[in-house]
C-alpha cells in the first residue's frame, strides 16, 4: 500500500473511532443553582406572609382574646375558641373578627419580610458549593439571627396589632379607639413616647427566636426527612405536611412567651406604675393565679392560626420562588 493510501486509512480509522465516542456537549453537566436577588427574597417573604394573614387573621384575634381571658385569676370571658369567635361576631359584628387587620398586614410586611428574607439569604450563603443545605446547628444559628433582626423591626407593628385586636373587649371608658395601624403608631409615640413602640421587646425577641428555631429549622428538617422517606416528592403535599409538623412544634414551644408578650403590650400604666414589670413577672403571676397550664391558654387558636399560616406562607413562598426561577432567571 502506498504512503498516501496508508495515511488516508489511518485518518479514516481515527474518524471512525472518534465518531463512536459520545459528543462532549451531550454529557450531563450539573446546572448552576439559580439564586434570587436579595430584594426578591425579601419581597416574596413579606408578600407570602401577607397573603396568609388575609386568611387566618380572625384566629389571631381569637388567640389574643383567649390569652387575656381570665387575667389575674378572674372568671374567663371565653371557655373555648369557638365561644370566643361567636361572641366577637355577635358583639362587634363580622368586622370584629378582622379587627387590627391593617396592623397584621403591616406586621407581615415588616417582620415576616425581614425574617424570611434574612433566613433565606443566610441559608443560601452557608449552603455547600454543590447546593447541599447547611447542617442542623447552622440552621439553628441562622434562625436565631433572622428572628432577632425581624423582631427588632416588627415590634411596633406587633404592639399595634395586639392593642387593635383587644380593644373590642374593653368597656367604653377604657377603649383606646385607634382608627388603624398608623393612627395607633402615631398616638403611642405621641402619648407614651417613641421608645414605647418597642414595649414588650424582650418577650417579642424571645418568641421570635423560639418561633424561628422551631418553625424554620423544623420545616427544613421535616421537608428533607419526608423527601428522603420516599413517600413524598418536593411539592405542595410535602410542603403541607412539613408545615403542619413545624406549626405544632412552634406553637407548643412559643405559647408561654406569646402570652407574656400579649399581656405586656396590652397593659396600662396606672399612676405611673405598669401592671407588669416584665416577662418573668407575667409568667410567674400566670402560674400563681391561673395555673401552669394557663401558659398554653389559647393553644388551639394559636395552632389553628400558626399551622395554616405556616402552611400558606411556605406554599405561597415556594410557588412564587419556583415561578420566578422558571420565568425570570
TrEMBL record:
GO terms for biological process: lipid transport. Signal peptide: none annotated. This is Mitochondrial 2-oxoglutarate/malate carrier protein. It is a multi-pass membrane protein. Belongs to the mitochondrial carrier (TC 2.A.29) family. SUPFAM superfamilies: Mitochondrial carrier. Its main location: membrane. It is found in: Membrane. It catalyses: oxaloacetate(in) + 2-oxoglutarate(out) = oxaloacetate(out) + 2-oxoglutarate(in); (S)-malate(in) + 2-oxoglutarate(out) = (S)-malate(out) + 2-oxoglutarate(in); malonate(in) + 2-oxoglutarate(out) = malonate(out) + 2-oxoglutarate(in); maleate(in) + 2-oxoglutarate(out) = maleate(out) + 2-oxoglutarate(in). GO terms for cellular component: membrane. The keyword Ion transport does not apply.
Amino acid at each position: 500500500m502506498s504512503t498516501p493510501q496508508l495515511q488516508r486509512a489511518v485518518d479514516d480509522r481515527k474518524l471512525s473511532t472518534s465518531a463512536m465516542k459520545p459528543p462532549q456537549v451531550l454529557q450531563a453537566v450539573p446546572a448552576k443553582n439559580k439564586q434570587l436577588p436579595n430584594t426578591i427574597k425579601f419581597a416574596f417573604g413579606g408578600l407570602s406572609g401577607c397573603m396568609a394573614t388575609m386568611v387566618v387573621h380572625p384566629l389571631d384575634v381569637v388567640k389574643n382574646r383567649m390569652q387575656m381571658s381570665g387575667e389575674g385569676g378572674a372568671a374567663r370571658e371565653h371557655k373555648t375558641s369557638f365561644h370566643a369567635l361567636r361572641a366577637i361576631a355577635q358583639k362587634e359584628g363580622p368586622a370584629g373578627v378582622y379587627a387590627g387587620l391593617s396592623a397584621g398586614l403591616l406586621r407581615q410586611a415588616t417582620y415576616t419580610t425581614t425574617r424570611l428574607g434574612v433566613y433565606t439569604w443566610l441559608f443560601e450563603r452557608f449552603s455547600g458549593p454543590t447546593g447541599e443545605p447547611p447542617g442542623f446547628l447552622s440552621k439553628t444559628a441562622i434562625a436565631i439571627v433572622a428572628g432577632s433582626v425581624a423582631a427588632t423591626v416588627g415590634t411596633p407593628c406587633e404592639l399595634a396589632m395586639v392593642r387593635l385586636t383587644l380593644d373590642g373587649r374593653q368597656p367604653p371608658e377604657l377603649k383606646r379607639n385607634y382608627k388603624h395601624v398608623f393612627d395607633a403608631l402615631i398616638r403611642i409615640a405621641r402619648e407614651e413616647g417613641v421608645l414605647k413602640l418597642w414595649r414588650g421587646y424582650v418577650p417579642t425577641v424571645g418568641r421570635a427566636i423560639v418561633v424561628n428555631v422551631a418553625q424554620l429549622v423544623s420545616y427544613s428538617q421535616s421537608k428533607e426527612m419526608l423527601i428522603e422517606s420516599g413517600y413524598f416528592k418536593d411539592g405542595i403535599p410535602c410542603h403541607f405536611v412539613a408545615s403542619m409538623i413545624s406549626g405544632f412544634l412552634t406553637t407548643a414551644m412559643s405559647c408561654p412567651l406569646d402570652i407574656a408578650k400579649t399581656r405586656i403590650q396590652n397593659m396600662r400604666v396606672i399612676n405611673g406604675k405598669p401592671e407588669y414589670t416584665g416577662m418573668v413577672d407575667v409568667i410567674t403571676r400566670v402560674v400563681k393565679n391561673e395555673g401552669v397550664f394557663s401558659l398554653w391558654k389559647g393553644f388551639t387558636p394559636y395552632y389553628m392560626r400558626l399551622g395554616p399560616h405556616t402552611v400558606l406562607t411556605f406554599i405561597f413562598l415556594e410557588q412564587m420562588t419556583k415561578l420566578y426561577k422558571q420565568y425570570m432567571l
